[in-house]
Amino acid sequence: MNASEMTWVSGWASDISIWEDEIYERFPFSHRFVDYWDLISDCPDNFWDNNPRIAESQTIVGWSMATLALLRNLHKKPAGQKWILICPIADFCGNGCWQPSAVKATKRGILENTEQTLSNFSALMGDIPKGEMEKWIENAMRYSPEQLTIGLDYLIEKKADFAEISGNNLNIELIFGKEDRIVPLAQRELFAPLLAQIGVQVTIRESLGHWLPNYIVYS
Known about the structure:
This protein is an alpha/beta fold. The protein has ten helices and six strands, in the order βαβααβαβααααβαβα.
């Protein structure tokens, strides 16, 4: 395991590497990035097997939809590896999160007017500088409407499974934003089985929403 390497796993419609300058400034390590297409190109549940070098990193950082895929691969987590899960999801359509009908409406919007729907979605992320919002949307537009809807289907259909939790010290940090309107703080209740384990902690950022760069700055 590379003690100086961090792997960043992107969430829906995102590529965390677009913020690599901020990341390298904050964390002077070696970094690897898994973008949205890497995550869903086969199936998010299989991305760990499709990216075998992920087990070499000392630290894995997942954002939003990526946290759900990581948690569904929890049984493959190396014992000494640290996970930082930002805006973590256990059940996207449960506990104050989105109703399936709302996700399906977003799917329809993506197919009819992708850019406008992405703009509406990004408005939910919190206080984003205008240029940064445009940067995120421009990147998201690299993915086809069909690719974007694959991720939305995953969010509707999949839940984290905490039935089999292995390891005596999981070394996982869950970071929630109190102002997050996409993954509300009520999701925390769904993590009770995980939080009962040794080495799992919760951090709540009082003034933050869903926008990842804010968490990079305050980590």
